[in-house]
Write a structure and sequence with these properties.
By secondary structure, this protein is an alpha+beta fold. The protein has five helices and four strands, in the order ααβαβαβαβ. α2 packs antiparallel against α4.
Length: 167
Amino acid sequence: MDSRLDIIFSRRSIRVYTDDPVSKADIQSLLEAGMAAPSASNRKPWHFVVVTERDTLRALAAAHPFGKMLASAAMAIAVCGDPAISDWWVQDCSAATENILVAAAGLGVGAVWLGCHGRPERERAVRGVLGIPERIGVLSLLSLGRPGEEKGARTQYDPARVHRGDW
């Protein structure tokens, strides 16, 4: 592994958290990282719903079939996109989601990506808990907190998935 890319290789899905909060400065940095993502025609169709209230985190944990860790997370961010702003909102918001995840690793914040887009029942559930308008797409829900588990850095490079010149 190339050590210059350590922050990327250290990004792992963290589902266990301590009781320590994520600071307001770190939350701001996560959002800035998300908004630094590339965006088709620089349309920036994203919206972010930041959740730190325990009751709402518990409601999200109950709403998402794979989101049980949200009940003990310090916070969550719902990454949403406005299709009226850009037909490429899914790609743009995916890039923003990954930027937040990599930034979290750099800040010592554990995080896991919970998919919503493409599963209408998940989008509806998250939209209902957070009051997100129907016209807004819900791409992902990020569970974040100070890591209560350690996972080593890794690459998942697989040369069988690389095609050079043509398929």
